[in-house]
Design a protein that fits this description.
The complex is a heterodimer of chains A (320) and B (265).
Chain A (H helix, E strand, L loop, with lengths): L1 H22 L15 E4 L2 H11 L4 E4 L14 H8 L3 E4 L8 H7 L5 E4 L38 H18 L4 H25 L7 E4 L5 H6 L3 E4 L11 H14 L3 E5 L5 H10 L2 E5 L7 H5 L4 H16 L3
Parallel strand pairs in A: 1-2, 1-3, 3-4, 5-6, 7-8
Helix pairs in contact in A: 2-5, 2-6, 5-6, 6-11, 8-9
Chain B lengths: L7 H26 L4 H20 L3 H22 L4 H23 L5 H7 L7 H20 L1 H9 L1 H6 L4 H23 L4 H13 L5 H26 L3 H19 L3
Helix pairs in contact in B: 1-6, 1-9, 1-10, 1-11, 2-3, 2-4, 2-9, 2-10, 3-4, 3-9, 5-9, 6-9, 10-11, 10-12, 11-12
Classes of the chains: A alpha/beta (320), B mainly alpha (265).
Amino acid sequence: MDLKKETVFGAVIAAAVAGVVFFAPSGAPKAESSSSLPSVSVSTFSLYESARAVAGEGLEIRTIIPLGSDAHMFSPTPKEVARIGNSSLFVYSGAGFESWAEPLRASLPQNVEVLDMSKHVKLIRSEETHAAHHEESHEDEHDRGAYDPHYWLDIDNMILMTRKLEAEFSKLSPANADLFHKNAAAYVAELQKLKSEYANGLKECRSRLLVSNHDAFGYLARSNSLESVSVIGLSSDEQPSAKNIADIVALVKEHGVKTVFFEALINDNVAQTISRETGARAVSLQPLENISEDELKSRETYLSVMRQNLHKLREAMECR
Amino acid sequence: MLEMFDYPFMQRALIAGTIIALLASLSGSFIVLRRYSLLSETLAHVSLVGVAVGILLGTAPLWMAVAAALAASWMIEYLRSAHGLYSDSILSIFLSGSLALSVVIISLAGSFNASLFSYLFGSILSVSNQDLWIMGGFGAVGAALLLVFFKELYFIAFDEEVARASGIRVALLNFMLVSVIAIIIALSIRVVGTLLIGALMVIPPVAAIRFGMGFYPTTLLSLVIALVSVVVGLGASYLYSLPSGAAIVLCLLAFFVAALAINRR
């Protein structure tokens, strides 16, 4: 028996040495380029939509968070990190939305430009639904977490994002600046059109109360002068307190709210509970953190999903 | 195959993993022998309280985690030795208690906090050079302490009463051991995550002990198992796009199963 053990012991040590030698780091990094175009890595769906619209055929746009997965639960695999490292530009949403992006920043190669998009849009604080406009970006780390990261639901921010990407892309590939400018203008025009649809669609409504299970909709509410009330904090994996649910139930009953919204892609226990307690319908609203497999198959875009959301809002609030 | 380690981030992940594997398996053998395995799991969850406090106050979560883990490790050791409570029940109280505390603190922070989630599974792929220096520095001190008192610690792990009778300063060494472990764990959770550090501490010694060799070869074997798992786990994680921390733990499990199979009693 002893002989066997020593053999095994020796074999394990040998395997270890072989393994280390086999995997041993060697040489310099080589860029794996699938095309001659400079590539841009973007993290979220809204960034991807805007980037794709601006870049057209002029750049290679790659998403980091796979379409169809829960953006909150995502964490990059080695190949994804390598891909980010091989990009010319890495754009992430920021304001605490991707917990993996900040630590990654420090470990990326020097030649990768990094853009934290939240520094270039108008953010609102998470505690105050009626927060004042937040004009300039904050460098103060202490405040970072206090902003609501779902800023792409305000169409004005989507326009700011598009313009910022145009500027960055033009720096990256000056030869294509005209193309980017033309594409950005076209997409902004689309966004403006969507904005006026929202303005008209939500002008005269019986109720202006938006009740949801997750306050991802603060921007949507504020930019359309709706009042947003939600059951839990900003992160979808938080658990609500009993009092919080009771407050919302009371509010729903008091205002005769007929629809309670829950976030698509997230479990809707809380919305269902409120629905049972009050008799209000539970309807899903898409916060566009990402899109689902089915939406991906049916070629949904930021614009089309926002229109679906508008339709649901109009029904819930009984708008004319 | 080899090109995966051409990437600086993979090299840093490998170095970080190596440092942690070394320290975890070295200190792990003492806690496994003392039926104290859950200490690593408990301190990892206590570190999470430190992280939550750090996020709430906007200070460095890493150092808060170290402080929390140290304080808890002393409390646990004090309760175990002075009050004669069962160590497993103390550990389980601290484990669930600290998890509850960190969830409450995070909700008080009232901000969007997926960042706590990143501590559950760690992010070995975004280790920076600064992280490596911190881990290397503390790791060197920790490893030195463990190696200097290796004989005494082994003696205590084997039989605390006899060790005390033969004049070894048991209480002091016990506090030193839990402190070193607390620091190792607090510094590791950002890299391998709260849910996985326990595996790196416990599985290699347990698998190595199955071979029934002396203490030194057993420790050496557990070190090798931990190191190989880190390398192979990272490699598999790259090749098959698996979550890195989990791939490492599955490798460890494979070793454990192999050790059981080879040493059927």
